[in-house]
Structure formats: structure tokens, C-alpha cells
Design a protein that fits this description.
The structure holds 2 protein chains of 2 kinds. Chain A is built from 7 helices and 10 strands. By secondary structure, chain A is an alpha/beta fold. Chain A has a single domain, classed as 3-Layer(aba) Sandwich (Rossmann fold), CATH 3.40.50.300. The two termini of chain B are 36 Å apart. Classes of the chains: A alpha/beta, B mainly alpha.
Chain lengths: 226, 315
């Protein structure tokens, strides 16, 4: 589902942020990417969403070879991957319902279908009846669940979440993780970056540890000591 | 078919989102519209002032003419030949003949209250010469007329020197060179003003979009195409332009309405307020459509340009 082959990303005047990383993620896997701040987790995330191009190496996601990707196809790629960010990245001028609907609107989904789908997805993330609220009227955990609803509404095969619990208290963090596990059970491959030890250790999923831009360990049902 | 339908849905959503966004960002909209309205108003005033000034200049130059005084013994035949030849000169717009009798009549009307002056002239002893008044097309180029009038054959017919010579010629020259300067200055002024207005409006919209750059970046990360992201912003700023243009027209027309009803003295130096008001009324539809089109176009172009830097797909 996700394949990285000796991927390096170097920013000018600094050492490589990612150094010859190779990673293979199977369909329907739930993978945690862990490591201290500055280890290269966010860089990996940006390479997968094609916000940035690798300096060298090969990336294939969902059968799409990034080397053969034209600029005009980047929006299409981004619609195929569900993304969740630490800072939620919600459109504050739009209601919860509109934020989720936006992901479908840009794909040209007919309005009737959007009206039918959005409440269902809000129900999945536990936000039934909040569709008319604006993001700033919600708690942090609720906002993150709106972001997850927006990411999964198109039923992507892959969901990548960059520190989705980073700004949340433990209770809300667990709410978010529970939703992600649920989505994974439905068959979506989930890639989650975090440095929250408690979450990693309780989840008992595959853990890939990155430090100084290199993969230092890759264990099934792994543990992490941050 | 499917493709067309998709396009239609997209267009519909872009317009709808633009209008909704206009309402939800009403304070940014008000600030930008106010700025645009002020700029468009000043520009509109400058254009009307320029037109008025042109009118004043036309008015002055249309009063510049060349008077040729004929000897009493010139026959009707000679006179008609002379006028015919004059009409053939390129720079001659019109030739008018004033007979001795008409000249006397005009003189009497002009001096109706001065008995001494009236007594000095009687019909039997009329010292006023018959006059041929030449209206030039371009008062700056009287040379062709002068060459013709200075020919020996035409000199023969004239009782007195042609009236453009001497002091009046110098005055005419001064007026014409001044008008040329003012016309050119007017055009340069308008161009400078248009450029400044564009920059102000562009910058206002740029600021409005800078305030909402996060929105653009988020939409991009979710996989919206640049066109789909930019569209609603363009629609929104087109609305700014249309509203600002309408406000500026309302302001200007009410100012003219007030000015023409309160200002008794209708002329401020070289600017004839009545003419400005008339010009504005006569060209209202042209001004209205131009102003709104310009407002919409500047709005659209500015936002299309200002959103560019936030829509780069990757680094």
C-alpha cells in the first residue's frame, strides 16, 4: 500500500531530514511512526502528501508512483489519501457540516449524495447533530474528530495522521485514537505519527521509530520510550 | 455529457461559495469596498474634471478667429471669389461674411447706452469695414491662412491689417500653447491616477487575501484544484468591485445634484460645474457600465494574482 525505497530529503544548509528511509506498509495495517521532535516524522508526512518532493529515492502510494506524477494530478492524489493534522486545519469560516462536505465538493460529488453522506460520517466520529456548529464552538477533541470525518468521508484506502493527538488532553486523545482504530477495522490503512508513549504502548501495533532521519527500529506490537 | 455536468456543478459551487464567503467575511469586505469606492470616486471625479476642462479649452479656442477687413470698393464678385478661395484652405472650418450694415447694427447694439459713441457714427457715414470672419479648425496652425492672406492679390482687397497680427496674435499664441499644455497634463494626470488606483485596489485585495491565506493552504492540502480554490475568492472580489462601483456612482451623482442646486455661480475658475453635471448625466450609462466592469475586472484580476503564491502545489 505504501512503499518508500531509500528516500532522502535534504533541506539546504542542513543535514538530511530523512536519510535513505525504506518502509513497506501492507494494506489495512495500522502503523505508528514515533520519534522525538525533529526526528523527521513531519517530513515523512509531507513527502507522502506531496507537499514536498524527496531529494532522492522512490515513493509509491496506493499504486501511484510519485516520480511519474504530474503537477496537475497532485490534487487527485490528495483526494485519495485522507489526511489529519496536529492543528486540525479546519476552515473556520465554514460550519462542521460544510468542512466535511468540502472534501466531497472538490471531487465534484453531487449535492444530494453529499447531504446524505455527511451526517453519517459525523455519526461515525461521534459528532451527530453538530453539523451547524462552527469549529471554534467545539472542544479540541471535537475539532480533531471533525478533521477525521473530513479525511474519511471520501472513504480513502489510506489515512495518514500527523500528531493528531498532539494538542489534546489524554481523554480527548483517546477519543481520537478510538475513532482511528474503528476506521482501520473498516479496512483503511492508517499511518499515525506521534510521540505520545502512553498511546503507543497501549495500542500494541506495529511501531516504526525514527531518529535523526533514520529508521532505528521497526517492530510488530512495539513499545516506545520517548 | 458527464463532464459538462461536472463543470456546471463546479461553477455553481464556486459562485455559491463566493457569495456565502462574502457574507461571512463582511468586515473585511466592508473595509476593502470602502477603499475601492473612495479610489473609484476620486478617479471618476478626475475623469469628469478632465472632460470639463477639455470642454472649457474647446470653448476658448472656438472663440479664436481671424478677421479680414475689406475695402469698401470690393465688388460682390471679388468678395465671393475671395470667400470661395478661403473655404478651400484645409484649416478653415467656416467663413462668415459681415456686411457694413450688419457691422453697424452690432456696433449700435453693443453701445446702446453710450449716446456719444452712437452719435459719432451715422448710416450715411459708416466707417466700419465689411468683415470676413474665418473660423480655423486648429487655431494653433494659422500659417496656411496667413500665407493666403499675405498674397499681394488678396492684400489688395483689405482695408486694414488682418486682426490676428500684433498683440492679439501673441494672446492667441499664449492661449493655444497653454491649452496644449493643460490637455497633455490632463491626460498624463488621468493615466497616473489610474495606475495609482489600480495599485491601491490591488493592495487592498492582497491584504484581504493575506488575512485568509490559511484557508487557501488548507483547501490545497485537501486536494482542491487551484481553480476551485481561487474561484470563490475571485467571485467575492468581483462582488467587492461591483458594490464599490455602485457606491461611488451614487456618491458622485448625489454630489452633482447638490452642487447644481446650491452653487449659483456655476463656474469655479476654469471648471464649469454645470457642464460637469451635464456631462455626467449624458454619459451616465456609459460611466455606469464602465465603472462596474472596471470594478469587477480589477477585483477579479487582483484576487487571481494575489492568491497565486498560496496555491503552489508543492515545494
Amino acid at each position: 500500500m505504501i512503499l518508500l525505497d531509500r528516500v532522502t530529503k535534504t533541506y539546504s544548509r542542513r543535514g538530511p531530514a530523512l536519510d535513505r528511509i525504506s518502509l513497506h506498509v501492507e494494506p489495512k495495517e495500522f502503523v505508528l511512526i514515533v520519534g522525538p521532535s525533529g526526528a523527521g516524522k513531519s517530513t515523512l508526512f509531507k513527502l507522502l502528501t506531496r507537499e514536498e518532493k524527496p531529494t532522492s529515492g522512490k515513493i509509491i502510494v496506493g499504486g501511484i508512483d510519485y516520480d511519474r506524477l504530474h503537477d496537475k494530478d497532485i490534487p487527485l492524489l490528495r483526494r485519495k489519501i485522507g489526511v489529519v493534522f496536529q492543528d486540525f486545519k479546519l476552515l473556520l469560516n465554514k460550519t462542521v457540516g460544510e468542512n466535511v462536505a468540502f472534501a466531497l465538493e472538490i471531487a465534484g460529488i453531487p449535492t444530494n449524495e453529499i447531504k446524505h453522506t455527511v451526517p453519517k460520517v459525523l455519526d461515525v466520529v461521534g459528532l451527530k447533530g453538530k453539523d451547524k456548529n462552527y469549529p471554534l464552538e467545539l472542544s479540541g477533541g471535537e475539532r480533531q474528530r471533525v478533521a477525521i470525518a473530513r479525511a474519511i468521508v471520501r472513504q480513502p484506502k489510506i489515512l495518514i495522521a500527523d500528531e493528531p493527538t498532539g494538542n489534546l488532553d489524554p481523554k480527548h486523545a483517546w477519543d481520537v485514537i478510538t475513532v482511528l482504530e474503528k476506521i482501520n477495522r473498516f479496512g483503511t490503512t492508517v499511518l499515525l505519527t506521534t510521540h505520545n508513549q502512553e498511546i503507543v504502548n497501549k495500542l500494541r501495533r506495529r511501531v516504526v521509530t525514527i531518529n535523526d532521519g533514520k529508521i532505528v527500529s521497526d517492530r510488530a506490537a512495539g513499545q516506545y520510550r520517548g | 455529457m458527464k463532464n459538462n455536468e461536472h463543470r456546471f456543478i463546479t461553477l455553481e459551487r464556486i459562485i455559491k461559495n463566493g457569495v456565502i464567503s462574502f457574507g461571512r467575511n463582511i468586515w473585511i469586505a466592508i473595509a476593502a469596498i470602502a477603499m475601492m469606492a473612495i479610489t473609484l470616486t476620486i478617479l471618476l471625479f478626475a475623469i469628469v474634471a478632465n472632460a470639463t476642462f477639455d470642454h472649457t479649452i474647446d470653448d476658448i479656442t472656438s472663440h479664436i478667429d481671424v478677421s479680414v477687413y475689406l475695402k469698401d470698393e470690393v465688388t460682390e464678385q471679388q468678395r465671393n471669389d475671395f470667400i470661395g478661395q478661403l473655404r478651400e484652405i484645409d484649416n478653415v472650418k467656416d467663413v462668415e461674411f459681415i456686411s457694413k450694415e450688419q457691422a453697424l447694427k452690432t456696433y449700435r447694439q453693443q453701445n446702446a447706452e453710450n449716446q456719444d459713441l452712437l452719435a459719432a457714427i451715422s448710416e450715411t457715414d459708416n466707417p466700419l469695414p465689411a468683415t470676413v470672419v474665418i473660423k480655423p479648425v486648429n487655431p494653433n496652425k494659422l500659417n496656411s491662412i496667413k500665407i493666403f492672406l499675405d498674397k499681394a492679390a488678396t492684400k489688395e482687397l483689405q482695408s486694414d491689417p488682418t486682426s490676428y497680427s500684433g498683440d492679439r496674435k501673441a494672446a492667441i499664441d499664449k492661449i493655444t500653447s497653454a491649452t496644449r499644455f493643460f490637455q497633455q497634463a490632463g491626460i498624463v494626470g488621468i493615466i497616473v491616477f489610474i495606475v495609482i488606483s489600480m495599485l491601491i485596489i490591488f493592495n487592498t485585495i492582497r491584504m484581504a487575501i493575506f488575512n485568509r491565506r490559511d484557508e487557501l493552504v488548507i483547501m490545497r492540502l485537501l486536494g482542491a484544484t487551484p481553480g476551485y480554490i481561487r474561484g470563490p475568492f475571485v467571485v467575492e472580489t468581483m462582488l467587492y468591485g461591483a458594490v464599490a462601483a455602485t457606491i461611488s456612482l451614487i456618491v458622485v451623482s448625489s454630489l452633482f445634484a447638490i452642487a447644481s442646486s446650491t452653487l449659483e455661480a456655476s463656474s469655479l475658475g476654469l471648471l464649469d460645474i454645470n457642464y460637469s453635471s451635464r456631462f455626467f448625466k449624458n454619459n451616465l450609462w456609459l460611466i455606469l457600465t464602465t465603472q462596474i466592469t472596471v470594478g469587477i475586472l480589477i477585483g477579479a484580476a487582483s484576487s487571481a494574482f494575489a492568491t497565486r503564491r498560496y496555491l503552489k502545489l508543492h515545494r
